[in-house]
Amino acid sequence: MYRNETNRITYVDVCGFDKQRKIIASVCVAALPIGKAGVLEGRNATTYHLNNSYRQKELAEFGVNVMNEPIVVDKNIITSYSPQTANDVAFIMLERLLEKRKLIGLEKGVSG
Question: What are the angstrom distances between the C-alpha of 18 and each of 7, 76, 92, 111?
Fold first, then answer.
């Protein structure tokens, strides 16, 4: 499923983003390539939940602690289980980005 060159590049990007603690967000089945990259191993996440939860079972095969929740946030990674959660995922991501920006501004003010 994730075998072509584009997916190899995505794998490298996702792993690099996680090492740098950059925010990684996914909606619906987009958690699967993140799980395949090994970034979610031992962490909480979610993915598509309907049709007998077969996508959640697939995600669990990557060593993920799958939560049957609409949105799961584990450190820098945000996952959700359906397209209907996209707006909420975007707002969580925006909130985290703005918070980080405020913290960087405070650091500069204190050390400047």
Answer: 16, 7, 17, 27
Q: How far apart are CA 42 and CA 3, in angstroms?
A: 23
Average per-residue pLDDT for the chain: 87
Average pLDDT of span 36-64? 96
Q: With b meaning 16 or more CB within 10 Å and e meaning fewer, what string describes 74-96?
A: beebbbbbbeebeeebeebeeee
Q: How far apart are CA 85 and CA 9, in angstroms?
A: 26
**Closest to 71 in 3D by CA, of 95, 103, 47:** 47
CB neighbours of residue 9 within 10 Å? 10
Question: 7: closest CA among 37, 47, 38?
Answer: 37
